[in-house]
Recover the amino acids of this structure.
């Protein structure tokens, strides 16, 4: 029997999570989120430079205006992997004075250009699409509950979905705290986190089910059984999360500016997913099970 009692200290893990989630909910209501141009709309500018330019050079010219997170793409017949004369910039909605300052900075720091197109665009992710995404997420949770209830029992499914909700709230709280930009890639990150977290949780629940069949009898300490199951899968959980974190941290530190927030969301989500699988899901199931037997 492991010395450290994870299942028996359930209230401690629940409180730790609430210390992040409750302030996070308050921040979401009071501060909101820093939505990117996918949600708010913005400005598209197509420029044709006299000489091929690199994305990093264009991004550096936008940095003094806080626009270095803009989407910058190379195009045209002269483009290659590194540079091109044709550049498309998608950024936030710019006022006329700021637009002139930005255009002047690009000309002075990057080079002479000809404006091929400049227009304001609406949000690519509308309210209806956001609603559909939320509905799809809720439906997936219901299906997860039904599937796990069929393969395991209802309490396993309910605990697993609550652990998923925990992970989503943690990521949303951190993004509200830090005011990092939320765009379409953030939605993809959330779905990836859900897939990772439920997979890790199912492995632990499957071991709990096996131990229930092998070792459960009247008078068995369920907390010890849950602890045994968690420790039997602990190495696997750590190997999985560390492997994922190596990738996301490399993407965050060495990837482009436009992938940093995506990598940051995955990093927070994977850490939270590992935590919830070990410290939240099993203790939650134990809490539900004890209520039935009490």
């Amino acid at each position: 029997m492991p010395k450290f009692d994870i299942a028996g200290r359930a209230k401690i893990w629940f409180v730790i999570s609430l210390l992040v989630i409750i302030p996070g909910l308050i921040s979401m209501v009071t501060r909101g989120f820093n939505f990117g141009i996918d949600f708010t709309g913005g400005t598209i500018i197509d420029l044709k430079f006299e000489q091929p330019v690199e994305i990093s050079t264009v991004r550096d010219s936008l940095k003094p205006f806080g626009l270095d997170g803009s989407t910058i793409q190379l195009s045209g017949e002269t483009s290659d992997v590194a540079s091109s004369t044709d550049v498309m910039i998608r950024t936030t909605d710019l006022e006329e004075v700021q637009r002139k300052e930005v255009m002047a900075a690009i000309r002075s720091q990057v080079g002479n250009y000809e404006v091929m197109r400049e227009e304001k665009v609406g949000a690519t992710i509308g309210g209806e699409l956001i609603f559909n995404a939320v509905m799809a997420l809720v439906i997936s949770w219901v299906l997860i509950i039904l599937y796990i209830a069929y393969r395991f029992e209802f309490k396993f499914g309910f605990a697993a979905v609550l652990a998923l909700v925990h992970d989503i709230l943690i990521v949303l709280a951190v993004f509200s705290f830090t005011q990092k930009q939320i765009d379409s890639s953030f939605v993809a990150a959330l779905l990836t986190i859900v897939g990772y977290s439920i997979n890790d949780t199912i492995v632990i629940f499957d071991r709990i089910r096996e131990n229930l069949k092998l070792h459960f009898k009247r008078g068995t300490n369920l907390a010890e059984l849950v602890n045994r199951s968690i420790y039997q899968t602990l190495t696997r959980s750590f190997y999985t999360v560390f492997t994922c974190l190596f990738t996301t941290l490399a993407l965050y530190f060495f990837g482009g500016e436009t992938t940093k927030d995506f990598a940051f969301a995955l990093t927070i989500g994977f850490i939270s997913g590992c935590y919830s699988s070990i410290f939240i899901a099993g203790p939650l199931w134990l809490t539900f099970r004890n209520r039935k037997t009490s």
Q: What stands out?
A: The chain has a mean pLDDT of 87. The beta strands are 34-35, 42-54, 71-75, 83-91, 113-121, 181-182. The chain has nine helices and six strands. The two ends are 24 Å apart (CA to CA).
